[in-house]
Amino acid sequence: TSVLSDRILTMQESQTIAMAKKSRELAAQGVDVINLSFGEPDFQTPQYIKDAAKAALDEGYTFYTPVPGYPELRQAICDKLKRDNNLDYKNENIVVSTGAKQSLANAVLSLVNPGDEVIVFAPYWVSYTEIVKLAEGVVVELVGSIENDFKVTAAELEAAITPRTKLIMYSSPCNPTGSVFSRDDLAAIADVVARHEQVHVLADEIYEYINFVGDHASIAQFSDIKDRVITVNGFSKGYAMTGWRVGYIAAHKDIASACEKIQSQITSGTCSIAQRAALAALKGGRASADEMVEAYHRRRDLVLEMAKEIPGLRTPTPSGAFYVFPDVSSFFGKTAPDGQVIENAYDLALFILRDAHVSCVDGRAFGAPNCIRFSTAAADEKLRDAFTRIKKSLATLV
Ligand code: PLP
Prior knowledge:
The protein is an alpha/beta fold. It contains 13 helices and 12 strands. Helix 8 links the parallel strand 5 and strand 6.
């Protein structure tokens, strides 16, 4: 028996972090590893945001912050939600947290009772299922088909809902697939949700700005279900601020108050300096994000073009975020030159690391065991080099 709680024993270590660790170990031995396993912009935080953080220190922003965030930051978030998403919220609806990850955890812990079912659209971001388990909810994975760009349809959702369904969770643009729900997709999903009064929606829009199709839709825009939608967003991806740890939710005030209550007992308000930086980020609008998105778009095209030249990879075209997520099941059962049989996507990811010295993450942790994820948030030359190596390595499998 273990001294540790059942709660922690049923939780998995983050697979993305585990793979990054392996690639760092190889790099430490002097191997030139190209790391495409991380979900992180390779850009520095824009200078005007850094300047605001420096000013915050000089201006004395060193005290505890209000638990749901500085009022001026929450107001700026309301302004952003109006400007970008045509959503009307007040400060009482906004809770700022230590990254969108905490926002997600707050929301799940606020809504889910032990035994409640949470429908997680798969492929999903790795932490969703683990957070639901932490809340003792029952994870119901609903897998979107590759033919539909991995997007779950309204009909599939309808079929998965039971009287115990409390919450559905997804990201759009999606990590890991890059799929983006259109307004029509979400209208159909909202219709289903409207028919089931006990069902809430946790809509993770952290990749909102990294969108190559140009039309970001929020399910909270469907007013008949708005009170049951929790929109999650943050600064990590759009503003290249992963290390600063600022995310937020917009929700009905009762749900927002519940999230605030949990946060008040676990972390308190997020870092004062990071909040001042986030405020400056929002005041600067989308210009800095747009510049980065141009690069992500170009790299997506570059990677897709190279991936299409590699026999055996089936790579849908991502509409947003900074990943490609090819189906690699055609390699299962093949043998590497060192005699290793590739049984599954994990074996293939390890082979690619060992042979091509490129790190990626296999799809199991995303609920997609036939796929592997490559980040495209790396310099163009690195991506070119990586996919040249991958092509060469995969060609040696027989
Ligand atoms: N949601 C998704 C879909 C993500 O990919 C990530 C980060 O990888 C997060 C949330 C967490 O973001 P944050 O850095 O704000 O905690």
